[in-house]
Specification:
mainly alpha
Length: 281
């Protein structure tokens, strides 16, 4: 039991540090101990939920959905675990987006928003709007994306939530896509200020990437962000934003630079696939 808790908490620590591979290694060691001592369903649900988070961030879609579903099926038996049910919906919806099926993510996210409102939980309401905004951004329904992201930002401001930099980044990204560059710059600046205040190097890297791509056209700044992604095993981010960067550069007829970022995205996808093969062994 002590070995399980050591491995489990170490996994949570490294996940918070965005050291995903290390986190997964600790979680896999913890899982080996999970059936060696008596624990209730809720203990198992908490483990399944935490593992589903790591797999989601590593873009191991089917592993993530499997663990999130197992956790959700336990949590739905207990009325007092509404928050975890909502968080499971976020993960399931995020995996649908990764499958390029954002329209199938919307029902889960609308359900999450309804349950969050019923629970009267500001941070869950904010996260529901945030995820809906990200989903509509992927669907290129930018007005709806802006509406939800603005609501998320307002809620997070009220409760001073740690997801504020994430909301700033996503809203700035949508506004930049809408060619609202002055607004995007203001959001970037506020997001950077808050990310630095709470030492959030992950969202800071994404904000700097956004600045380099849309605001000052500095590819060295963009490449520094991708270096951060690579060093921390954030291959899903490297793939997604690599394609976004390449498409922007292609429209600007910077073909050589576009090819570099397409290559980064392809290399990241290979790493994601390799980690999947390792997990199956």
């Amino acid at each position: 039991m002590l070995e399980y808790y050591y491995q489990f908490f170490a996994g949570m620590y490294h996940f918070r540090q965005k050291e995903l591979i290390l986190a997964l290694n600790f979680y896999r060691n913890a899982e080996k101990q999970l059936d060696s001592f008596e624990c209730d369903d809720l203990e198992k649900a908490e483990f399944y939920f935490k593992v589903s988070e790591v797999y989601y961030h590593m873009k191991q879609t089917f592993f993530s959905m499997n663990y999130a579903s197992r956790a959700y099926n336990i949590y739905k038996k207990y009325d007092t675990y509404g928050e975890r049910r909502v968080q499971c919906q976020f993960i399931l919806a995020g995996n649908r987006r990764d499958q390029m099926l954002p329209e199938k993510a919307l029902p889960s996210l609308n359900q999450a928003l309804s349950e969050s409102t019923r629970l009267d939980s500001p941070h869950l309401i904010g996260s529901s709007h945030l995820n809906l905004g990200i989903c509509y951004n992927q669907l290129e329904e930018l007005e709806k994306a802006t509406d939800h992201l603005q609501k998320a930002l307002e809620v997070y401001r009220e409760v001073n939530h740690s997801f504020l930099p994430k909301a700033f980044f996503n809203l700035a990204h949508v506004r930049a896509k809408q060619a609202e560059l002055v607004t995007a710059h203001d959001l970037y600046f506020e997001g950077k200020e808050y990310a630095e205040k709470i030492c959030n190097s992950y969202d800071l890297a994404k904000l700097e990437m956004l600045k380099g791509l849309y605001l000052i056209h500095d590819l060295d700044l963009v490449r520094d962000s991708f270096k951060f992604f690579k060093e921390n095993g954030l291959y899903a981010d490297a793939e997604d934003y690599g394609i976004i960067a390449a498409e922007i550069l292609e429209t600007e007829e910077k073909i050589r630079d576009a090819c570099d970022f397409y290559r980064i995205a392809c290399d990241a996808r290979k790493q994601i696939q390799r980690s999947g093969y390792v997990n199956e062994s």
